[in-house]
# Entry
Amino acid sequence: MTAQLERVERKLDVPRQAVDWEHYAPRYQHLLDTPLTAADVPAWLAVWSAVDAELGETANKLSTFADLHTDDGAAQQRYQTFVATVMPPAARTGQALTEKLLAVPDYTPAPDFALNYRRFRDAAALFREANVELGVVHEQQKNRHSVITGNQKVRLNGEELTIPQAKQRLDSPDRAEREAAWHALSASNMAVASELDAVMLDLIATRRQLARNADEADYRALRWKQLDRVDYTPADCRAFHGAVTAEVVPLASQLVQDTARELGLDRMRPWDYNRGHLPDPQGREALKPFTTGEQLEELALKAFAGVDAGLAERFSQMRRGGLLDLESRPGKMSHAYCQYFPVRNEPFVLMNVVGTADDLRVLFHEVGHAFHGFYSGEAQPLVWNRWSPIEFVEIPSMGMEFLTLDHLSHVFDDEALARYRYNQLRGVIFFLPWAAQMDAFQHWLYAEAPEDVQIADLDTKWLELDRTFHPFVDWTGLDETQRARGWQYYHIFQVPFYYIEYAMCYLAAVGIWREARNDAAGALERYRDALRLGNTVSVPELYRAAGVEFRFDRGYIQGLMTFLKEQLAGA
# Structure
């Protein structure tokens, strides 16, 4: 075990007593028993926030440790036991405390708590006792997905690879190597497809029951309220899908066709289009700016220092404190994310790096989330006021992908930097159809699919959408069963209805970068100011604080696509 991994393991260590409900129950009971007047509320909220932060930190550490050890039965069982024995009484107690707060006569929340007071009220109205235990089942079902995919292996040319390692081969300039990697990944995915099918059917049934228990028409209606989507409607999302079809898909198709022509190809096959990563027209090897996780950290540190010394220091704090686990290895969940430990206001980044330029971009992305945690945590004492609504939460991360673009001369020479920048801009264009497809699929699945929906129905719908949003990928002669299972993706299982936010925030991040090109210092200061607001203002206000508009309509998308085309032409 490396020194860095030892620091990570220590950081994720949880005292034995912290995994028992009895560790938290007396403090929650004291809050319930304490007489409460309007004047008492601020101090009472501070105590409640501190206990919630401790419980949340324990849950997050156990979950993260389980993700780092998907092949460790004891780690999985410890987390699942916590979910089953601690989270239900915590949910019931949270509802009782919320009802106590809402019943305080003559209480008017302070401006920085007004939004969360309204959210507390709305969440209390959704609470159903039947959904407490069913929520445990839901978490257990999602964990089955993590275990299945975390232990997935790929056999390629006699080697056993992790999913991230195999995906790296899709960036090879050798088309035969790309095709072999694609077939190996497809074989690996199909080997677990039936298991994931079973998980998905269980999740659909559970999610529908959660909605029925909450007296909602369907699961989309429930999630709309759970996610506090008050600034836009399902109809707005439908309009976004149409706008992407009209304004982005033709541009993406043209970029793909141009690349195919430069490569001397008459069509682009699935192994030629790795969701935004196209083969280099000049046949150059994929950019590989580092080999080890430690090297990546050094490169990133210098980039953050170029943007701002304060950002660099926060990243150094993460390095020193065991808050980064970047290397890919067997038994580790293959996704990337930023976790948060609220007691000490510490973000934690999990990745699976294999040496690619995209790893660099993803690290900037996840550490952007970390900066959000740092800044909102310092500015907002109450745990519920930290971070932000999910429609904004990807702006700190995607914004950092762009704000670092002009600070990478130590990573790449001029030619390589131009390639990296070009790929970053083009990646936005290629991402939007994928985001629209993911969102459209979930609207269908949770609000329109038949009651007796089967896996074949999911496959059929996914194929229909894929042909709409990705018409430029040629599957002729291939087994489209593999294409049809494209819905077997992390967010569909783990965070339903969380995907259109990536598109909203990517559009905003491009806007922030556009402003930064005219006023770098001002754009960065607005970025930080918006992060400090946390969860205390509305989504449109957060966007305005960051210097952009909360829009994702056709006209706005058209304007940003024009800007990106201009930037690509000059790249």
